[in-house]
Amino acid sequence: MNVEKQILDLDRKTKLSTLWIFVMLNIIFRDIHQLFKYGFLEEMMTGTVNGVRITEEFMLLAGILLEISIAMVLLSRVLKYKVNRLANIIVGVLTIIFIIANGVTDLDDIFFITIQIGTLLVIIWYAWKWPKHASRSAPQ
Fold first, then answer.
1. How confident is the model at residue 33 (pLDDT cuts 50, 70, 90)?
2. For the chain, what percentages of helix, strand and coil (3-state, to nearest 5) are there?
3. Distances in Å between the alpha carbon of 85 and those of 20, 67, 88, 137?
4. Would you state the pLDDT for residue 102?
5. Predicted model pTM
6. Coil, helix or strand for 129?
7. So which residues are the signal peptide here (predicted)?
8. How many domains does the chain have?
């Protein structure tokens, strides 16, 4: 059993989990930041935001998509190498698609989206480059 490989594997899991926390905080604070935009609360009260009707189905879909990213904070720490690597790559790509589909409405959106997508690309790259040997001897 190689202790150095175990530490490297644990370190990679910790970094991936921490990156997911960073992504989620940016998603949450982007939404909170919108509340301070003039007229946004009034727009929300109409049930339509940025031209999108906010229905129960929309809220459920948005909740599911966000929960998947939240789950990655935990899953990045507990999943075994192969599933962990694939999950980080797949969920990273899907989250980028979700963020882009959500659209850009102003300059602060561009700022937050740039941070979110940049971090997700780091997650995807970090998982992609995760060497298989780093997990062979590590207990899962």
1. confident
2. 80, 5, 20
3. 14, 19, 5, 16
4. 82
5. 0.83
6. coil
7. none
8. 1
